[in-house]
Amino acid sequence: MTDDEMEKSYRSGLPGVLGVIDTAISKIEAVILAMGVLLMALNTVTNVVARFVFGNSIMFSGELNRILIIMITFAGIGYAARHGRHIRMSAIYDALPVGGRRVLMICIALFTSLVMFFLLYYSIVYILDLYSKGRVLPSMGLPIWIIYLWVPMGFLITGIQYLLTAVKNVTSHDVYLSTGVVDGYKDTETEV
Question: Which terminal CB of the chain, N or C, has fewer other CB atoms within 10 Å?
């Protein structure tokens, strides 16, 4: 199965309820990312057309793109974790036998999950601080704390994803980068 086929028909490698939760989160992330990118493109193009055709920019366009960038970034970290697309430095990891790689991947996934939950906590503290200050976006009039709600949601989803990756590695004989991606390298050389 190619990467494109996997992304279109993502099914979790986890059994039972965990698999259902993982697949549901995957679908929600895909919708959020697609809608965010499309809305950002539409907003930017509309603003450029308005500027050149009517001589005026849309006053809230920059703020809307700011909101969408935050949304895409923090929805995207969970997506990247789910598809095993984060940057890895694997010199020591690659030198280990399969059992050692699996143990190391469990430790990495659990540690990363803990870091994500730690960041989740501090992002909530930050949002509560913003809430207490009562600041609003100048053009849209939205309270600033609302645009940052994507941050804890992204950390929560990513923390859960890494936790599920650790579970998958505990319950499997293979080494998994995520619940559906088996560790390994693709042959990227082509014949001439």
Answer: C
Paired tokens of 59: 């006053």
Residue 56 lies in a domain: yes
Residue 45 structural domain? 15-182
Number of domains in the chain: 1
For the stretch 85-113, pLDDT in tens is: 777 777 788 888 888 889 999 999 999 99
**Which pLDDT does position 94 carry in this prediction?**
80
Q: Residue 1 pLDDT more than 80?
A: no
Whole-number Å distance between alpha carbons of 147 and 63 = 10
Q: Does residue 55 come out as left (phi exceeding 0), alpha (psi in the -120 to 50 range) or beta?
A: left
- Grade residue 153 by pLDDT with cuts at 50, 70 and 90: very high
Rounded to whole angstroms, how far apart are CA atoms 134 and 99?
Answer: 52
Look at the pTM and tell me if it is higher than 0.90: no
Indicate the DSSP class of residue 60: T
* Measured CA distances, 112 to 16, 90, 105, 108, 181 (Å): 24, 15, 10, 6, 17
In a domain, 9, yes or no: no
- 37-43 long-range Cβ contacts below 8 angstroms, 24+ apart: 37/72, 39/64, 39/68, 40/65, 40/68, 40/69, 40/72, 43/68
